[in-house]
Amino acid sequence: MWRHPPGREIYRSGKTSVFEVDGEKHKVYCQSLCLMAKLFLENKTLYFAVEPFLFYVMTEYDSRGCHMVGYFSKEKHSAQNYNLSCILVLPQHMRKGYGKMLIEFSYLLTRREEKVGSPERPLSDLGLISYRSYWREVILTHMLKLSPSPSSSSSSSSSRSSCSEFSVKELSQESGIKCDDLVSTMQYYGLLKYWKGKHIVLRRKEVLDEHAKKLESRKGSPATLDPSCLQWTPKTYPMYT
């Protein structure tokens, strides 16, 4: 009896594991994942042609084995550098942080490949909300690293100031997120302003204060990714016609 998904375990931290499953080697299993996803995703169109894809299955471990909480798939070869094609978190595991972990894991693989990537378009409404939330978190965390602690600022200082050290290109290379996704997220959340012929990144004290508290409260959470636990190197796959 199988007590875990097929394929290779490439990540383990605490009770959380991720298995890499090749759609060519484990065709029936991957087709079953796609058919299951169709039950919850209206725009799911891939069912049977799974050979050009890799599937990353996240599980929780207990005494009976590894139980799937969600997965995402990605193309082995993507001309647009898409790092995620489809993502699903099972309903009973929603609102536990697994969706964010899967998105973050896709970018962890992208960084290990020394690339920048983006999810396959078009995004669903829920997908866009999830990604914007993740991109915003990456941007705010980067701002906290660049700037003094917002809570230590003088009480007479403005609640909004520019962040002159901020470089979208550097953050893109560091995070694996495409520049276009970072810029659109900053515009959406009002973190970027065009003033006197220049784009100014805005450092909002109240927003950074709130984000710092959120990061502090999340320490030790099981739904936190530990990059040092990834045991994976990029692999070259043959092209599919």
TrEMBL record:
EC number: 2.3.1.48
InterPro entries the record matches: Acyl_CoA_acyltransferase, HAT_MYST-type, MYST_HAT, WH-like_DNA-bd_sf
One Gene Ontology term from the biological process aspect of the record: regulation of transcription by RNA polymerase II
Superkingdom of the source species: Eukaryota
Family matches, as Pfam families: MOZ_SAS (PF01853)
Catalysed reactions, semicolon-separated: L-lysyl-[protein] + acetyl-CoA = N(6)-acetyl-L-lysyl-[protein] + CoA + H(+)
Broad enzyme group: transferase
Coarse class of the protein's main subcellular location: nucleus
Domain MYST-type HAT: residue ranges: 1-234
GO molecular function, one term: histone acetyltransferase activity
Cell location: Nucleus
GO cellular component, as recorded: chromatin; nucleus
Keywords from the named record: Acetylation, Chromatin regulator, Metal-binding, Nucleus, Transferase, Zinc, Zinc-finger
Keyword Transferase: yes
Residue positions of the active site: 120
Family to which the UniProt record says this protein belongs: Belongs to the MYST (SAS/MOZ) family.
Name the UniProt record assigns to this protein: Histone acetyltransferase
